[in-house]
Write a structure and sequence with these properties.
Length: 105
């Protein structure tokens, strides 16, 4: 016996459906903890931060910059003591570690 219709070709390679789309930082209003890569948007860095550029770390949300509207993330404890937080815009978010985020829209 033969089938009248041949099987449809696969549209995506195996495992491609497991990948999530990138997280849009502009849509995230609150994050508990994230796995992220530090990619500063400015060349004006605090001393000692150069070695953390491109490095994957765990960051925790601490709130909005005093007097501003910019969301900030708490730096890992092994970062220099002079730097306690970084702007959310300076992080490439790879994964939300705790499912307690609120998104705009």
């Amino acid at each position: 016996m033969t089938d009248a219709d041949p099987p449809a070709p696969a549209s995506e390679p195996a495992g491609a459906t497991d990948q999530r789309p990138p997280i849009d930082r502009k849509a995230v209003q609150y994050l508990d903890r994230v796995r992220a890569v530090f990619r500063p948007t400015s060349d004006d860095l605090a001393p000692g931060l150069e070695r953390f550029i491109g490095r994957e770390d765990i960051f925790r949300h601490v709130g909005v910059e005093l007097g501003g509207v910019q969301p900030m993330m708490e730096c890992p404890v092994h970062w220099p003591r002079t730097v306690k937080w970084v702007p959310l815009r300076d992080l490439e978010i790879l994964e939300i570690l705790e499912d307690q985020d609120v998104r705009a829209g």
